[in-house]
Specification:
Elements: H1 7-13, H2 40-48, H3 62-74, E1 79-83, H4 86-97, E2 103-107, H5 112-125, E3 128-132, H6 137-143, E4 148-154, H7 166-176, E5 180-183, H8 188-191, E6 201-205, E7 219-223, H9 225-239, H10 245-255, H11 258-278, E8 282-286, H12 296-302, E9 309-314, H13 318-327, E10 332-333, E11 343-345, H14 357-362, E12 369-373, H15 379-392
Parallel strand pairs: 2-3, 2-4, 4-5, 5-6, 10-11
Antiparallel strand pairs: 1-7, 6-7, 8-9, 9-12, 11-12
Helix pairs in contact: 3-10, 4-9, 13-15
Pyridoxal-5'-phosphate binds next to helix 4.
Length: about 400
């Protein structure tokens, strides 16, 4: 794989050679479920793995493979795999790496459905879970047990934007040969590349910044070839949460503008952060590259920029937070992030409603907390909407 191009060039050119596809500058959409064989013998060779080629789109599809190669190149991994959703990617990785009675060490905050999936695994397969702040080497080392199967991390953590030092955790995990899995959805590979920091597996909800247009649900995993070959042959193929060719086509298109979009998301988020911090109705603002952020030094070290998501607390409680949402007009009340539209949601009653109150508390989620996915609109218009709503609460 070529490595010499800059990231902004790779998103456009990696994983695709137009002359291999009749000069089609844009990758073709292979909207087909199956592929015919020229002969019985060829079918036999394909199934035996003796001949490269396509069989059935749940196993491999050309458009999906182009997306997978691009993702591998962008995360600096050996292989990429595409999934029907971020959660299909998370569940394929987690079930691949664990067996009954294993232990999983997790970051203190997790995406709501990942928390739900892990809770189900705890009940059904007697898997034990440990949630850790992972602030020091000693803390990570002391939480590792003989049956620890993996360390699962989100950074920035949704919705509190707490950060975990990926280089530090992967160094400690290596001492014990434990794989470190990182959900990199909030950063995108443009802002943070966990494999470069020593982590083993990267997961994305491609629904967010990879697609970037709010029109597809998709997931991706990148890592070492041996492990991803195993996932491809087992939990991907047999559980079957594979990506549709059309979704891969949309994502290939979305990827081409990812760095341009991300820079604009970040420009807007930096300005909105500074304005929110000065507003009298705002109690606190959480943004990774803001100097008041408790993990600012980790943010500067491992993230190119702070990303497009800001979490803030309004003065008051749930009532004031909900009032703010209801006063907005340009900004849409919606979960998800990374869309061109600015979106806002109330984590306690929306994305993290499945998390029991005691866990919400230890994750730092409060009733006055709002999560803003800053879009691509003019920052002046985003701020005007926020300011008029803040003035009313
Ligand atoms: C959205 C999201 C997921 C789940 O992805 P889907 O594409 O909705 O299945 C997982 N992790 C994080 C951090 C997310 O934001």
């Amino acid at each position: 794989m070529k490595r010499e191009y800059h990231f902004e060039t790779k998103v456009i050119h990696e994983g695709y050679t137009d002359q291999d596809w009749m000069g089609s500058l844009t990758p073709p959409l292979f909207q087909t479920s199956t592929f015919s064989f020229a002969s019985a013998e060829q079918g036999e060779r394909r199934f035996a793995g003796e001949e490269e080629g396509y069989i059935y789109s749940r196993l491999k599809n050309p458009t999906v493979s182009i997306f997978e190669e691009k993702m591998a190149a962008l995360e600096n991994g050996e292989r990429g795999l595409a999934f029907a959703s971020g959660m299909a990617a998370v569940s394929a990785v987690l079930t691949s790496l664990t067996k009954a009675k294993d232990h999983i060490l997790c970051s203190s905050g997790l995406y709501g459905c990942t928390f739900g999936l892990l809770s189900m695994m705890r009940e059904k397969y007697d898997i034990s879970l440990d949630f850790s702040e992972m602030e020091t080497e000693e803390e990570v080392r002391s939480r590792i047990q003989p049956n620890t199967a993996l360390i699962y991390i989100e950074t920035p953590i949704n919705p509190t934007m707490k950060l975990i030092d990926l280089e530090m955790v992967s160094r400690v995990a290596k001492e014990r040969g434990i794989p470190v899995v990182v959900d990199n959805t909030f950063s995108s590979p443009y802002l943070q590349r966990p494999l470069d920091l020593g982590c083993d597996v990267v997961i994305h909800s491609a629904t967010k910044y990879i697609g970037g247009h709010g029109d597809v649900i998709a997931g991706a995993v990148v890592g070492k070839k041996d492990f991803l070959d195993q996932v491809a042959m087992t939990t991907q193929k047999d559980m079957g949460g594979v990506m549709s060719p059309f979704d891969a086509w949309l994502l290939i298109r979305g990827l081409k503008t990812m760095p341009v979009r991300l820079d604009r998301h970040c420009d807007n988020a930096e300005i909105i952060t500074s304005l929110l911090k000065e507003h009298p109705k705002v109690e606190r603002v959480y943004y990774p590259h803001d100097s008041s952020h408790p993990d600012y030094s980790i943010g500067k070290k491992q993230m190119k920029r702070g990303g497009g998501v800001i979490t803030f607390e309004v003065k008051g409680g749930k009532q004031e937070a909900q009032r703010l949402l209801n006063e907005l007009s340009l900004i849409k009340i919606a979960v998800s992030l990374g869309d061109p539209e600015t979106l806002i949601q109330h984590p306690q009653t929306m994305t993290h409603a499945v998390v029991p109150p005691e866990n919400q508390g230890s994750m730092g989620i409060t009733d006055s907390m709002l999560r803003l996915s800053v879009g691509l609109e003019a920052w002046e218009d985003i701020w005007r909407d926020l300011e008029q709503a803040l003035d009313k609460i």
